[in-house]
Amino acid sequence: MFQKIILKQLNFVMAVGIKK
Fold first, then answer.
1. Alpha-carbon span 12 to 8, nearest angstrom
2. pLDDT at 19 over 90
3. pLDDT tens-digit profile of 1-18?
4. How far apart are the C-alpha atoms of 17 and 3, rounded to whole Å?
5. How far apart are CA 4 and CA 20, in angstroms?
6. Cα–Cα distance for residue pair 20/18, rounded to 1 Å
7. What is the C-alpha to C-alpha distance for residues 2 and 20, in angstroms, rounded to an integer?
8. pLDDT greater than 80 at residue 20
9. What are the residue ranges of helices labelled H in 1-20?
10. Torsion angle of alpha carbons 8, 10, 15, 19, nearest 10°?
11. Biggest alpha carbon distance in the chain?
12. Residue 10, Cα to own-chain centre: how many angstroms?
């Protein structure tokens, strides 16, 4: 469960990085 949260956070950070 915790790993899934981290994965989602990483995905969000990656999306923001690509958008910038």
1. 6
2. no
3. 899 999 999 999 999 999
4. 21
5. 25
6. 5
7. 27
8. no
9. 2-19
10. 150
11. 29
12. 2
